[in-house]
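[job 0412] stage=fold_complex status=start
inputs:
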Amino acid sequence: MKPKTLFDKIWDAHVVKSIDGGPDVLYIDQHFIHEVTSPQAFDGLRKRGVQVFRPDKTLATADHNIPTVNQDQPIRDELSKRQVDTLNENCSDFGITLFGLNHPKNGIVHVIGPELGYTRPGMTIVCGDSHTSTHGAFGTIAFGIGTSEVEMVLASQCILQPRQKKMRITVNGKLEKGVTAKDVIMYIISQLTSGGATGYFVEYAGSVISDLSMEGRMTICNMSIEMGARGGLIAPDETTFRYLRELPSLPGNVDLDSLIPKWKELKSDPDAEFDRELEINGSAIKPMITYGTNPGMAVAIDESIPTLDSISTEASASFLKSLDYMGFEPGMKMAGHPVDYVFLGSCTNGRIEDLRAFAGIVKNRQKAPGITALIVPGSKMVEQKAIKEGLVDILNKAGFELRQPGCSSCLAMNEDKIPHGKYAVSTSNRNFEGRQGPGARTLLASPLTAAAAAVTGCLADPRNFIE
Amino acid sequence: MSKEKFQILESTCVPLPYENVDTDQIIPARFLNATSKEGFGAKLFYDWRYDKKGIKKTDFILNNPSYKGKILIAGKNFGSGSSREHAVWAIFDYGFRAVVSSFFADIFRNNALNNGLLPVVIPDEALRKLLDLTLKKPDTKARIDLEQQKFSILPSGESFKFDINPYKKECLMKGLDDIDYLLGIRDLITTFEMNKRF
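[job 0412] stage=fold_complex status=done
writing structure:
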């Protein structure tokens, strides 16, 4: 038998039918929905007079558009309220389980899927959200889709999808102290550029990846889309199985003992062929920071912004437009630049490990005077854990407060916006113009780098804050 | 449900000479709180079209009355970032029926095809020249023949073949809908479910 990649093993097991000269009909094991990209899909079903085909395979949450304070009170913004209410109605009309606002299992869709055991190896997972790639950390094919495709999945539990090309990125070596999964993926994107993996599905491998916790692996897979890859995945191993065994509960009748032996087959065969292979020395990666307006525009925190002569002629207009937006000059040093806001949270870095990392640095220190901080847990469960572990006490003593879960300032659909012209060190995933509010200037970084900025008031190397 | 058919499109072009135009620029997230597909055209490229006070920025190309048409020409890696289909709804609602670039982000391309907006890929060098030409001569017309998979610049007659998945091509030309197709094979899907391995 021809050796297969992990991606092909999972894909092949989910092809219902291949259309001649066209895409595959791909079966979807788990569908997640949220309030922003689903209403028009339900509208479509109503217009067609069609029911949801497999309501038990879709799980809903409200996350993108909700406030992160006073969640017990009615949502003040009328349009946002209507969108959340519409989700409630749609789920109730079509028989879909909803962990809505104030539900003890509510949270960001890509945080709750894994922590509630809905995300498991070998599955196909989709959601109307590009960061669905997060779930690939468990050895799943998981990717973001548009609303037309959300309607396809609701109507048939399938979507039409051409098979992607395959890339493997092997990160060898061992990470230096103060360097995190976030820095690894930011480094990879800076090497490949923001469109460099378009058309590919990426498998991450190597000692750095297998040394990571599940949280770290989720951060890596999460940002696959930021280099254009539809998704990223990591072969399941003992770390994956342990994570699943330690979950407080699993949905339905999931029997890990019978599934784990099967899941052990889920890895690329030794001679499997990839369309592209990349090797990276993980030991050389440093804490990263973005300087521009796409995630590929990043350097190590102790480096400077590239000079104009290192940029190609055709890219120079976009490069200068980007620096102009950021208020930066080519060749400028990053460390020491003043910061106004710090955002810790999102589906990239809103998990308990991220809060622990942040708290580790701010412990016995104080929030810098000029800093406004938004510390947002990824879910109710993360929030509860942070309280139980004493992280909230540490944060409070250092002058920080924990907000309530949601996507918050990552895309600033709610009130958590960064004001025009202000600099925000953000643990989220996108530094696009206006992403965190009109005119906001985003600097993407790890939770450790965010913490270092929060206590110094400027861009600082987190390695200096770690014992 | 049948959709608008796409066969031949002849129109002037609107050039947008930037690379990596992400879907947050096409439609900022704060406008995603609608529950219908209508009306997003008014918000297309909002933060490039309007200043902080909501006044039109005269230096942005969509605000320049010399540039209009149904074909948007954009720098490479167009539509990256968020999966929001609202970006396609906004471009379509504004009146565009095709976007020409040298490179599209995957999700955007799928979303476009699912809504009757044709993504046309031409080589990098050709795109650079076309952006230049249409910026200088806003009355330049182009023609897209989907059947022939041919994009032509009318004054010069220069033309380029472009790729499209044959299934998607048929859907666009006939105005067919993927969901009708999937609803038609629900029995096959049920059989598949009974024999699944993972």
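[job 0412] summary: Chain A has two domains: 6-276, 288-465.
[job 0412] exit 0
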